[in-house]
Amino acid sequence: MEEIALGFATLMHPAVLGFLLIGIVAGLVVGAIPGLNDNIAFAIFIPLSFSLSPTYALALMVGLYCACAVGGSIPAIMVKVPGTASSVLTAIDGHAMARSGKAGQALGIAITSSVFGGFSSALVLLFFAPPMAAFALRFGYVENFALGVLGMASVIGLLGGSIVKGLISAVLGLLVATVGLSLQTGYPRFTYGVDNLYEGVPFVPLLVGLFGVTAVLELSEELIRDRRNGTAARDMPRITDSFVTPWPMIRRLLPSWVQSALIGNVIGIIPGAGMLMAIYMGYERISRRYKRLYAGKPGEPAWGEGAPEGIAAPEAANNAVVASSMVPLLSLGIPGNSVSALFIGALMIQGMAPGPLLFIDHPDVAWMIIVAFLVANLVMWPVSLALVRTISGLVFRLPKHVLVPTISLLCLTGAYSDENTVFSIVVALISGIVGYATRRLGIPHAPLILALVLGRTIEDNLGNALRISGGDWSIFLDPIGHPISAALILGAAAFMVGPAITGGRKRFQNRRRRAEAEVQNG
Hints:
Elements: H1 2-11, H2 14-32, H3 38-48, H4 54-79, H5 90-136, H6 141-157, H7 163-177, E1 180-181, E2 188-189, H8 203-229, H9 247-269, H10 274-293, H11 308-324, H12 326-332, H13 338-348, H14 358-361, H15 363-394, H16 400-419, H17 422-440, H18 446-469, H19 483-521
Antiparallel strand pairs: 1-2
């Protein structure tokens, strides 16, 4: 209780609360702009937070993270264009409800569902992160190496696409992480005589490039395509009803919120699983429940045609991932998704490192972050309801030819402010081009980011562990001397092998069905 009180005492400073509120408003606006997302918001705001104190900067980032997902539901409902990828399913029932004259109700359900999911994940962060951090303090070099391997394997294995492309992304990130002076020998690697690379590739400009500059290139591509095709502005339904979700609707949606939030929290804790997996699982689960309870009843729309649960399920699951993805970050130093990986940049720019030592070296900041997620979700509800009409009326009309130069300027200014050198701008531009190219090739960015974060840690712990064992690699699988390491390595193997086996089984079943169909038709 003393630690929670410390977190509240730190957060309740008027200036800290002010920056939390700024983050919430900024997140709502950025999330509501189609083409932008929470990754881009972090890439822009992290460098700008350099001059702020740690508590101000991290409160800003918490507000930004919580609100971006909520903002994404606004264009999804109003014009059926998801502001963020996590709002893609909200657009189905949300826009149908808005078209039927219930735009206010749809937005109110989305906001309330998001707050429910977000607050539940903040409670998960509060109760799980501190004990996990205390347990992780017992880890040595062997266990920390195995933990890093597990984090990498989970991200690659849970991508849902090609494991080969995931491995390519991870190897690329590990190669970039090795640039600079070796932690073991002190010799420079891959610096090619460039003094700025002796301490490694600067992390913040790299993130700005991968997310911010890449987004600028993608927006430019969309702008060119829209002008070529003559894309017209979308017609937006008017808001004529109340945003406030009535009590009978809250009682009806409560089971959907609980089930979806539970799914989102479990998915959020697993590194690499991500929001999309959570919203699809929550949406599928609640769709079966809706069809069982409401299908065919008078006055109830069909699933996908304006069902309230079709908005509640993805939004609750989506925001339940937010704070729960911080559990592995704060307790183990492993980001749960790409946004929490960017949160590492916010910590690093303040001279802090994520992981269990954060609770020892900076307890006021660690507990302030946890408490801020609780407070942010409570504050976000009235703020979102108050601003949603204004945002929905203004943001969608913001043209891309204004967004592109604005984001470009913010990205390059942010990259420069990291070390006040032109070299940082060069890093941001190169990483942006690489990020755009890999995106076009279908190579995911999540393994790359995690490899950048964990690369040096994995290398350092591997070297120290092998030095202790005299070069014996079996130390990592020793069930007696290092049972935790053995379990983590086996878990990593399961993450890698499991999806491959499942994918092979599905391909075999599909081939068998096609063969049977050919026999029947032939």
